[in-house]
Amino acid sequence: MLPQFFAQKNRRKKAIYLQQWDISHALKRSLLVFTSFIAAHILVMTQMEGLSFGDAIWYSLTTVTTVGFGDIAAQTIEGRAATIVFLYFGGIFVLANLGAEYFDSRLVRRDRQIKGLWEWKLMQHIVIINTPNKNGTEYFKRLISQIRAHENFKQVPIQILTQKYPDGLPPELRALGVIHYHGGPGSEESYSGVNIKEAGAVMVLARDEYDGKSDAETFDTLYRLDEHGLRDIPVIAECLNDRNRDRFYKVGAQIVVRPIRAYPELLIRALVAPGSEKLLENLFTHDGDHLRRYDVRMENISWLSIVTSLVKAGFGTPLAFIGNDGTLVTNAAPEEHVSAKALLLLVRADLPPSQQQITDAINL
After folding, report:
1. In contact, 298 and 340? CB cutoff 8 Å
2. Residue 185: which of 162, 215, 208, 167 has the closest Cα?
3. Cα-Cα-Cα-Cα dihedral sign, residues 271, 276, 282, 288
């Protein structure tokens, strides 16, 4: 067992350090040598042993694979010598070496795939560039789970371009069917590694959501993506400083959002329903349109009547109401009669209506 252990250990080391091209070349070379030995033996058997071409092939292959049925055997000294040279010393040795090279190639392939060094040549896949500075794995788990939850993306390949996982993705991410390429967005080799020209969508995450310099790196990434001609697919970029948004749009970003690490769903909404991300962003800030609660009593009033009255008055768009029992109801049916104690209204930041205005509009 000990010699076998060291043999396996040495082969593992060899596989790790050999490049894929080297092993492929070795496989082709061994296969060529093996084929040459078999062809030479077949020729000798037809000439010296008087075997038919079919019998010569049968005899050569059953011998070199050590099956040895014994139905055909060399009779002359020359034929037996040729069998020893071409099959015993040559063919069987090369065949064993060919098997070893094959398993080495599989080991190298697996090792490179795990470490993000393998070019998968995916098509119509989602490429996620960068990893959040903190809790990246947890963020990806939630982000990718949300992607998979959408009907259109259940089977879409997802690849992460990152330098955060040099020894391979954590098991929980691999379980979600994610692969990665080990590289940074500043390297052209990385874009080739993720086959960026064939991507179906790209998400560029801010390297550090608390460092304003991340916008400069995102701008450089978007510029490089634009050079690859990605104007016809969704390119979503995170932007820390709102003043940089226009710059991002000019270099190819179709959707620009703030990095909100607690809600990766924002990126999914932007991908599924472009434009909705602007509305969702406003819900997190006091700028622009935002949600506001109005404690207004409503008794048996149709939802259609409430919505129509407030929209006509220019006070905003009702999105939900809070029932008398505290239940939040969104997207109510138009004919539903509402008895509630509060209303959630999407209003303009520069012209929010007063409590009395809302009450008067509803009770007209």
Report:
1. yes
2. 162
3. positive
Q: Average the pLDDT over 338-357 and give the result.
A: 88
**Residues of 87-125 as b/e, b for ≥16 C-beta within 10 angstroms?**
beebbbebbebbeebeebbebbeebbebbbbbeeebeeb
Is CATH 1.10.287.70 what the domain over 2-114 is classified as, yes or no?
yes
- The more confident residue out of 273 and 223 is 223
Contacts of 95 (CB under 8 A, 6+ apart): 34, 64, 65
* Cβ atoms < 10 Å from Cβ of 222: 25
Instruction: Report the top-level CATH class of 290-362.
Output: alpha beta
- Average pLDDT score over residue span 176-181: 94
Q: For residue 2, which amino acid is it?
A: L
pLDDT tens profile 185-211: 999 999 999 999 999 999 999 999 888
Domain residue spans in the chain?
2-114, 126-284, 290-362
Q: Name the architecture of domain 126-284.
A: 3-Layer(aba) Sandwich (3.40)
What's 158's DSSP letter?
E
Chain segment 225-281, per-residue pLDDT in tens: 999 988 889 999 999 998 999 999 999 999 999 888 888 888 888 888 887 777 677
Q: Which residue has the tokens 């960026």?
A: 196
Q: Is 150 strand, coil or helix?
A: coil
